[in-house]
Amino acid sequence: MKENTTILRVENLHVFYGGIHALKGISLEVQAGKIVALIGANGAGKSTALRTISGLVRPREGMVRFLDQDITGEASHRVVELGVVMVPEGRKIFPNLTVMENLFLGGYTRRDLEGIKKDLEWIFTLFPRLQERTWQKGGTLSGGEQQMLAVARALMSRPRLLMMDEPSLGLAPLLVREIFHIIEALNQQGVTILLIEQNAKAALEVAHYGYVLETGKIALQGEGKQLLSDERVRKAYLGED
Amino acid sequence: MFTRETRELLFTFVLFVLLMVGVWLAQRYLNAYLVRIFNTACIYVIAAVAYNLVNGITGQFSLGPNGFMAIGGYTVALLMLPVVQKQEVYFLQPLIWPFNSFSFPPALFIFALLLGGLLAAGGAILIGFPTLRLRGDYLAIATFGFGEIIIVLANNLIPLTNGALGIKGIPEYTNLWWTVNWAFWTVFLVKNLVNSSFGRALKAIREDEVAAEAMGINLFRHKLLAFALSAFFAGVAGGLFVTLISTISPTLFTFSMTFNLLIIIVLGGLGSITGSTITAVLFAFLQELLREVEAPHVIGSWTFPGIPGMRMVVFSAILVILMIFYRRGLFGRQELSWQHVSRILWWGKRAHGGQS
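Predict the joint structure of the above. Result:
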């Protein structure tokens, strides 16, 4: 895919949960081959944005375009088939299924057995730990391994856009660093990533471009490094005066 | 020497041959009472394994198998009952056209069973269509209601079902050949289905619906398919049952039938086909053995009158005890696969078996 082509375009998205106006007209873009971060505090609407893009929530207004298709309000299994795949918040691996079954489920929308086998090998070079545990039940893995399994499972569908919801949630600092290394490594292999994080520093360090979400609105946007040095971001999210 | 798949297929084939030899021997040497229990056991196996596909594998709580069995039972009864017998049985109100004018010859028994299953599956789609889109306990409530509606209809659609009097004199086509074959092929099919990618998707739905959806699994379609398939086998089981005991009435398929099946699948382990199969057979035999507790007893100078229904009290007690001490049932979610069997027999030294 060409550099700098926009693959995901969200325009003026409004989402309501009952009477609560969760997203108040956000617009964002993701370019092919980039890491885009969406940061913000609890309840800013980050997860809602992701859930809306992946078809789990219907927007009241606005549009989501992926490549050249309008996917606004499309059923989530259709969105996955198009190549927009989410690593859900809190990992949500299948605890009573083996690691292998989890991975196969990741490739559920695919029918090319050869390609699936090849991708399995690729994933095991990325996550050698998972290969040691193929027959173990997902629920018996450690938190970090579960997060890796969740990422690996999403990769099995060969996503054109990988959306990650709080990948660092509940992980020890060392593991957080490892996860972000993996995110960078994946991106270098050509995976486009939309990243949602509360850990603003870690996210903006790896992101090419970032959006800051505040109470349902985009408050700021800019290149990752640029946002990191922005005074308002430093104050609000990095705890600096 | 063989790949694992061919070896397992071979094992399955050998098991099938052994079962058929067993049936032949049983038909020749066992008394009618034991044969009857084996027949009932096989019918329970069909219904329980099918029920487990929805409740245990897909994780959707259905309470409807009695309704689906009733649909299958009435369908088969109406199709197989000879015309002369129909005129005799329906003396309150005559049977409506077209059922009063024809009946299937014995050779078409299999088609009657299939039709019974298909109609039951149709009922499942009817009830599943509005309810399986929702998450939570709606399915349990809706299927419970559906079962009750079927019973009410059976009681009141007198020109079709002969109401509370039921239908008598249904030809007894069901024998061990039928029941063992249906049970075998049901287990075979459901087992292979569960191990397929479709089955993996069903298990994913049970584990976590949101994550399953994020994998691109169409929740509604998968649930509906599993539900319809389960109802199909329940319908067949109902059809086999009425041609075994030669009669059908609304009381045959009340909610207590669902309750029996629920006991079986919970005791065996929700999600374990092996568990459902084994406990279904055990249940059929226990039901007979426990007749003892319902019979009157004389101890010394005391005479205890028999208490009908005492068996269900015993079953309920077993269930409560099991839920306290062994919550996952006899098998949990484990299966007895050929890999396990061969490992037990020291044939295979495969390090990783995995559940299958």
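The radius of gyration of chain B is 21 Å.
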